[in-house]
Amino acid sequence: MKAKATLKQIALEFGVSISTVSKALSDSPEISEATKIKIQEYAALKNYKPNSIAKNLKNQRTNTIGVIIPNILNPFFAKVFSGIEKIALEKGYNVITGISNESFNKEQQVMDMLNNGTIDGFIVAIAEETQSLKEYKHFKDIINSGTPIVMFDRVADGINCDKVVVDDFDSAYDATTHLIKLGSKKIALLSTVNNLSVGKLRFEGYKKALTDAKMSIDEGLIVLETAIEDFDVKLQTLISSKKMDAVFALDEHSSTMTMRMALKQGIKIPQELNIIGFADGVWSRRLTPSLSTVSQHAPEIGAKAAELLIHKLNSKDEFYQPQTVVIKTELRKRESTRRL
Amino acid sequence: MKAKATLKQIALEFGVSISTVSKALSDSPEISEATKIKIQEYAALKNYKPNSIAKNLKNQRTNTIGVIIPNILNPFFAKVFSGIEKIALEKGYNVITGISNESFNKEQQVMDMLNNGTIDGFIVAIAEETQSLKEYKHFKDIINSGTPIVMFDRVADGINCDKVVVDDFDSAYDATTHLIKLGSKKIALLSTVNNLSVGKLRFEGYKKALTDAKMSIDEGLIVLETAIEDFDVKLQTLISSKKMDAVFALDEHSSTMTMRMALKQGIKIPQELNIIGFADGVWSRRLTPSLSTVSQHAPEIGAKAAELLIHKLNSKDEFYQPQTVVIKTELRKRESTRRL
DNA sequence: TGGAATTTAAAAAAACAACTTTAAATGAAT
DNA sequence: ATTCATTTAAAGTTGTTTTTTTAAATTCCA
Prior knowledge:
2 copies of one chain form a homodimer. The first copy, chain A, has 340 residues and is of the alpha/beta class. The first copy, chain A, has 3 domains: 7-50, no CATH class; 59-165 and 298-327, Response regulator (Rossmann fold); 168-296, Rossmann fold. Helices cover 46% and strands 15% of the residues of chain A. Chain A is built from 14 helices and 12 strands. In chain A, helix 10 (197-212) links the parallel strand 6 and strand 7 (222-224). In chain A, helix 1 (7-14) packs across helix 2 (18-25) and helix 11 crosses helix 12 (252-264). The longest helix of chain A has 17 residues, at 298-314. The first copy, chain A, is elongated. At the A-B interface, helix 4, helix 5, strand 2, helix 6 and helix 12 of A face helix 4, helix 5, strand 2, helix 6 and helix 12 of B. The structure holds a DNA duplex (30 and 30 nucleotides). Chains A, B: It comes from Flavobacterium aquaticum.
């Protein structure tokens, strides 16, 4: 464990001043070639790297982004994260990760802990609990303290900051409309995420599509239930009743559980039941039959969020107007859908 | 965007020195009660938080862990990460994430970038390319520079550092043995990860289990192919031949692809074909039939790695002997296996 | 009660590492 | 000897913590 090379250590080595070393390493014209060369060579040899903590302190910025994610095990967030990380690396930023675990307290705690100079700005998907409570004061405080926030996917209406969202309403509308065009007369709607902004928007899109197609909204075909156990019971009942010829599932659990229960009942997919769901693309392809999904372009969401934040950090514009960017979704038609 | 409260700012406010404020806030007995109270009250009012960058510079430590992961989209790594994050939060550490994308260069670059005071230590799963090249100099350099490393899952034999691994050999041995006990006579071995240390160990465990059971190792039942396209072609051929009654798949792709191709061919699982694979537990349960897997306790791996690193960071023991911790796996028997 | 000793409170300074700016010094040339 | 050009030294900046000094207040004893 040899001592790390610092300007001071190098200066001592050559009996010159710290500023001489600093200038030599930044290749300043003020320093003689001979001195520069010997110092630069020594620095390279010792693998000198400026201590970024010291630099950060001086510059009053850290080139670090804080990313607050409700649940890293959700592949959607993992993908968004990969998009953030990619852009961050390109722009020379580090990424500090905080997991809120869908908890309001932990979200607040983690963000507060990081908002002390550790990070320059936040990228956040709001925790479920926070969104249920509509408790957004901590976001306002952080923004007021001068730390910018970019929200993605789950956003807070009242907060004036950059946002990156998916067109949840439209994508649900389009998916439902697609099922109608395939000949479905009875489209069930399944959701365990109706407590989230995204879930509500998707539900609205579904209803609008039915209304526009002059189809009635059948409450008996709708299962909105946040508690997984209760949801599964209701879903089992619905599937056994065989009242529907298509399912639109708003989240991964309801999508996959529908497939599993239907296959167990011997219901043929897609011959007897069309299914479109929100789910991870890789795993949807691995199912048999493969699941048609609404692809949300998660990496692009992350990339865009990172770009917005870094742009804001680099601009000195006091009167910057926050914007909301909508990332288009795509309907990925796989084996779980076909003309009835 | 009001100015952040600093010691200096508070000192100026009361016309006292910076050190007085510092001591007052740390409730030092050197400061009179009256002074302490007024300063503490003011600090609370102004929501003063010590600038962690400055503290880090002074303390020569950042309470931040650098986690280098080959691919965050792999649920295994995401789960390990969640385990790391949990312990880190408990112990008051932040987590900076770097993704190597399985690339040697990026791994080196990211770690180098962070090893300048930004982080106190690393937790690393080695990139595939790094492991193929057996190029471990950067790890040695970092350790020599005084920054401890804990490796998990994919580890480098030649490097003297803490390691957290799964008993890949044993778990493969046990899984294979389980298939034998279920009555399998012809157990195929599929792997797209034979370029990784973990893949090789699992392969060895499979062979040992067969040998111990006095069964021959049939090269015609073994598909080792890193390129996904080539793998799929070979797998299709193997499955069409129907030469086996069981499959042991060493990674997620080969596990799921086997199920998919077999089901497409009308092969009944598990009646005609038993399958055990390495795969994500959540999604394995969602498959129909659900997939029996080797559960690797990923969060525990991450937690243990974080504990080892933080312990090392907090101990001043110059002669600390690095250890290798083995996390036990568990065979999760689901619908894809049963007595033949 | 006056002067010294001791306690107490607070201020000053140093350190962390990098970086910047200003001032000074050296050397050569005029 | 003076001027100019080139180097180098010194000092200040960031915010915190820790150590050292200084100043004031109190106690103690003669």
